Every structure is written in structure tokens, then in C-alpha cells.
Amino acid sequence: MSRMFSNLFRINLAEYYLIDEIGNFVRISPRPKILFDSDALVIVSSLDQKIYNFTGINAIDKKQAAAEQLAKNLGIRLGFSVEKIKYPAENIPPEHLQFIEYFADEFYLPKMPVNTSPHYRCYFCEELLVRSGNKCSRCGKEIPKCFVCDFPILYGDMVGKCSLCGAVAHLVHFYEWLKALGMCSNCNQKLHPEGIIPIIEDNKEAFFEELINEDLDDENG
What we know:
Helices cover 29% and strands 21% of the residues. It is an alpha+beta fold.
């Protein structure tokens, strides 16, 4: 099993508890939405045998205290260690970050907004670009587009790859599309959510190089 698929199983098998404004918690399902920095989320990972206490840097004291108590109680009951992580932060490992960037229910969080401004930042090097161009003037790379919404994929966006055809899309949009239709919009083949391979910061350069090489091989026959 690849590392990416392993991470998806970790996400699907975990239990998620979201803390509300008065310190109560509710169990939620993992869905592809982005956690705000004012939220607190406690995750029970049976595969890791750990309790993850993710608290946003702007979460109110009541949320933080409730999350800490819940994580402690679950850790004692299950015999798991507790790991506290502030979000966002530069030192969060990519596999842990995936827990909170796949997760929550539409009742709590809105859909990912689409950036429609005339300028955006290159997905690869963060150069500020004019939207009308299709290549970065700084690094020379072609700007990838989401095959679901047809908007550019920007610096910092979470991206997913279809394991059947290799097409890429915003991770949130890809999951929403599969939830509605159950197939990849690019190759029109049936696809389970576990068939989406996340592209993280550590592997995006290598992944897109592979795509370019595959295209060249196809052109050369």
C-alpha cells in the first residue's frame, strides 16, 4: 500500500470531534473542507494509536480547554498517547495536516471559495501572475487547472490526482464531484474517494514532472 493510500485509510478510519463555542463537542464525518484557524478538532486515530488535539491559533480559550480535556479523557480511556498541534503552523507534518484538511461537515464549514481576482500566485514558485497567462514568467512552468471548476490551481491549494487517468483538480472540488456523480470528470470512469491521490507540498514538483514526461512520451509515440 502506497503512503498516499495509507494516509487516506488513516483519515477514513479515524473519529473526529469538533468543539463548539460553549465547549461541547459533536462527532463529525471526514469530508473535504478546510478547518478554520478558530476551530478545535480532536481526532482519534486507531491506526496511529494516538489522539490528535488540533486547535486553531485563534480558537477561544473555552474551545481550547474543552479540546484538551476531551483529548485527555479519550487518551486515558483508550490507552492512546495525546499529541497537541496548533493550526496553522509550519511544523505540522503533511500526513497530520491531511487529517484536518479533508474533514468536516457542510453544516459547520462553507465550500472552498474560488479565487476570481485578476492576479494569482504561481502554484510552484508563488510569483504574482496575471490571470490571462498560462505559464509562469518566473519559473516557466505551465499553470495547472482544476478539471472540475476550470480555474487555475494556485500556490497553497490542496490538489488531488485521479489514480486512473492522472488528471488533477482542487482536492475539495474532486471530492464534491465524486460525492455527486461517483466518477472522474476527466476520464468518466467510476472512482471511489480512496482513488484520489493527494499531492502535497513535498511531492508536487516531482509529480508534475512525471506528468510532463508522460505527455512527451505520448507525443513521441
